[in-house]
Design brief:
- The complex is a heterodimer.
- Chain A has two domains: 220 residues, Glutamine Phosphoribosylpyrophosphate, subunit 1, domain 1 (4-Layer Sandwich); 71 residues, Alpha-Beta Plaits (2-Layer Sandwich), CATH 3.30.70.
- In chain A, 26% of the residues lie in helices and 31% in strands.
- Chain A contains seven helices and 16 strands.
- In chain A, helix 5 runs parallel beside helix 6 and helix 6 packs across helix 7.
- Chain A starts with a strand and ends in a 5-residue tail after the last strand.
- Chain B is mainly beta.
- Chain B is built from two helices and eleven strands, in the order βαβββββββββαβ.
- In chain B, strand 1, helix 1 and strand 2 form a beta-alpha-beta unit.
- The chains are: A alpha+beta, B mainly beta.
- Chains A and B meet through loops of A and loops of B.
């Protein structure tokens, strides 16, 4: 069992309140997933020709400033960083490829949790309330965010095994369920897609699969439709991209999901109680998403 | 009696409802701020009225006997699971498995019901003003499922008995579920059920589906195959 939540703001005036609403949604799912929790928030845009990297180091006293200085010196470029607990978001005036290559070569003990123009991703073991507080989720702003509370079934309980799983640039996914063909699909993605994997988690395979399809040119909707053919198992996904937000359930639809939509937002969760304190939810259109049906929303002007 | 679930736990509420006897004076209960909490008003046995203002979570009104329960909002998974008697009404949409394995009584859903509505129903009457999701009335054994809108795919899969009435389209019929004729007696009985449910629809507009009774027959001709 796991809990998943997602909030997509249609009304840009509410972006300053994203974290304030997402935090109680996440904590309400504690009973579905007390092992670990994580969130991805799509916040301010990195400047043109910059990339944002969400980094993690297991040592909470890790010297991020020293990493900043080395990056700045070696790449001869501007770097900014903001530390949140054992994570830090680095903004680097370089291509994602160049920044990631440098980290791979010079900072192997630092894990890249996410990379892109807008995504910021934080996850850790422990109760959702603890995780939300250590990263100050309540103060975060952005256009959309997704979160996960995990009760592990398929692999270990570590920060790296926690959700959300990011893949490619700005894409991330949270998952409730199990993917039964993840082993063969992972091999296929390694061989055909040249993808590499950070964990043995089945959900990471689903995230990388979608990233692979989108790299090949598929839209988010098309990638999810292809996933219905290729991903075998039980799943409810909530997916974020730079400008999009999506929900997908397998053919059996036995992993729970509910969506509430108003003029201001689209919110999804494993259970309605996570949505119960959102403003205006009593008047929202509330429904259970259908099996094998892709639900996608895009930010205005970005579809 | 009014109960605010922001200040009273669901457990305390249900204990109060379970303590009611035929001679209790509190016959009308109003519950506010349900906020999607699970198992609200489950396990009631007395003919009382319970009104819930707002959206409820899983297993609301489960195992109901005799009580009349109204949800003014949406309901989560397993509404009225194993209902024995009484009446449950929801003004909005409900999530999957509404009325699962219900033995009797009436469930009225004024919005849509998601997948597996009436799964393994054993005598309950379920009337849905909107549409139902996939695999509704899966392994149904007795009772009636009435759908004023459409039914999604695999309606009545592996049905033993039970009568399914759909006014709109059917995505597909499940294994061993077939369309059946409706005679005057059935039209009249369906009309009465629609009236009891407070649904303004003509029984003549519905088509009936039920069991072909082929799936579970053991054919002696095939004995050698086992």
């Amino acid at each position: 069992m796991c809990g998943i939540v997602g909030l997509f703001l249609k009304n840009p005036a509410l972006e300053g309140e994203l974290g304030r609403h997402l935090k109680p949604m996440l904590i309400e799912m504690t009973e579905r997933g007390p092992d670990s929790a994580g969130i991805a928030v799509y916040g301010h845009d990195a400047p043109r020709d910059w990339v944002k990297l969400s980094l993690y180091h297991p040592d909470s006293t890790f010297n991020w400033a020293a990493l900043d200085a080395r990056l700045r010196r070696d790449l001869e470029t501007e770097v900014r960083h903001e530390v949140r607990a054992n994570h830090a978001v680095f903004s680097v005036e370089a291509s994602a490829e160049r920044a990631l290559r440098w980290l791979k070569d010079h900072a192997q003990d630092v894990r890249v949790m996410a990379a892109g123009k807008r995504i910021e991703l934080f996850k850790d073991v422990g109760l959702p309330a603890k995780v939300a507080d250590e990263f100050s989720l309540g103060q975060m702003s952005g256009s959309h965010g997704i979160g996960h509370t995990r009760m592990a079934t398929e692999s270990g309980i570590t920060t790296v095994h926690s959700h959300p799983f990011a893949a490619g640039l700005d894409l991330c996914l949270v998952h409730n369920g199990t993917i039964s063909n993840y082993h063969s699909l992972r091999q296929w993605l390694v061989r055909h897609g040249g993808m590499s994997f950070e964990s043995d988690n089945d959900s990471e395979v689903a995230a990388k699969y979608l990233a692979y399809r989108m790299k090949e040119g598929a839209t988010l909707k098309e990638a999810l439709e292809a996933g219905l053919e290729d991903l075998d198992g039980f799943y409810t996904f909530c997916v974020g991209t730079e400008d999009g937000f999506a929900v997908l359930r397998d053919a059996f639809a036995c992993k729970p999901a509910v969506i509430a939509e108003t003029d201001n937002y689209v919110a999804m969760a494993s259970e309605y109680r996570s949505l119960a304190r959102l403003p205006g939810v009593e008047q929202a259109h509330v429904w259970e998403p259908k099996p094998e049906t892709v639900y996608v929303w895009h930010r205005a002007g970005h579809a | 009696m009014a109960v605010d679930l922001d200040t009273t736990s669901v457990r305390a509420l249900n204990e109060s409802l379970h303590r009611i006897t035929p001679s209790s004076n509190e016959r009308h209960w109003r519950i506010v701020n349900p906020r999607g909490k699970h198992a609200i008003a489950a396990g009631l046995t007395q003919p009382i009225d319970v009104e819930i203002d707002g959206h409820v979570g899983y297993y609301c009104a489960g195992m109901n006997q005799n009580a009349r329960i109204t949800v003014r909002g949406q309901a989560g998974k397993g509404l009225g699971e194993n209902i024995m008697s009484g009446e449950i009404r929801v003004t909005g949409n409900v999530s999957e498995c509404a009325g699962a394995s219900g033995h009797g009584g009436l469930i009225v859903i004024e919005g849509d019901a998601a997948g597996r509505c009436g799964i393994s129903m054993k005598g309950v009457d379920i009337v849905v003003k909107g549409s139902v999701g996939h695999m509704s009335a899966f392994m149904a054994q007795a009772g009636r499922l009435v759908v004023c809108g459409d039914a999604d795919h695999s309606l009545g899969d592996s049905i033993y008995e039970a009568a399914l009435y759909v006014r709109g389209s059917v995505g597909s019929l499940g294994a061993d579920c077939v369309e059946k004729d409706m005679d005057a007696t059935e039209i009249e009985a369906l009309g009465q059920l629609l009236k009891d449910a407070g649904v303004d629809a003509s029984a003549r507009e519905f088509r009936r589906y039920g069991s072909a009774r082929k799936l579970y027959n053991f054919h002696i001709d095939h004995a050698d195959a086992y």
